[in-house]
Specification:
The chain contains 8 helices and 11 strands. It has helices at 57-73, 102-108, 113-128, 139-148, 154-166, 203-216, 225-246, 254-272; strands spanning 3-6, 17-18, 30-33, 37-41, 46-51, 80-86, 89-95, 172-174, 183-186, 189-192, 199-201. Helix 6 (203-216) runs antiparallel to helix 7 (225-246) and helix 6 (203-216) packs across helix 8.
Length: 277
Amino acid sequence: MRRLLRLAGMEATGLPKTLQSLPPLRPEDKLGEGLAAEVYAWGDGQALKLFRAHVPRTAIEHEVAITKSLAACGAAAPQVRGTVEIEGRLGIVFQRVDGPSLFDEFLKRPWKLWGAVRLLAETHAAVHRISAPENFPSQRKQIGHWINGGNWTAERKAEAVALLERLPEGDRLCHGDFHPGNILLSKAGPVLIDWSCATRGHPLADVARTCVLFETGPVPEGAPPPLKCAMNLLRGLVQRLYLKHYARFHRINYRELAQWKQVQAAAGGAWANNAFY
């Protein structure tokens, strides 16, 4: 098995340095997976986000650059240790954050729903208090790209883009894929992971994206039918509680939020179509 390790942020400057003694990649070390990658515990205090073959190199380099710049912003994000290539698949090595996700914690202790949603809202509001660097990707351009990547009619795409253009821009740090599965509960406090979609933009657009995920996000595969039923019934309640708590930190214009939700629902087509890069 060929493994390549290079310094993060140096991918475009030359060939990677080959190392001989890297931690083994074992199935039992798998921590989770998503549309774009699998995540493994990897070595001492590290985690490997190993991307699927369809993810372009430019997207991975982009995530490295974005995540490294978050430390200067004051965002609670894991440190990038480097990048690897394993049998043709690229990956990012992160500082490992030990602790369950907020979503897994809720599954284990559903009676603590109120506290979990409060923490979700507080964490999101904390992100939006941060001014994003001026060189961060534009939220408006990203959402427009996602809209055009969906399997919609040309008319619906045009309507969604026109609405997007009428909505305000912003200068806040926005995560782009904020949900309970991306919050890890470390002993030092919550840590937000998977910043690949982070942008400079309007907080309500980010909130709207989370609301759309609450409404349409899939229930985990393998969940027993009673749990699936309960989670589907709780979608609306969780969204209302989340907005109630978030509004304690940032004012919500609900008319504007409804418009952002329309835009984000259209943008979600790119995720369903695997065209969000």
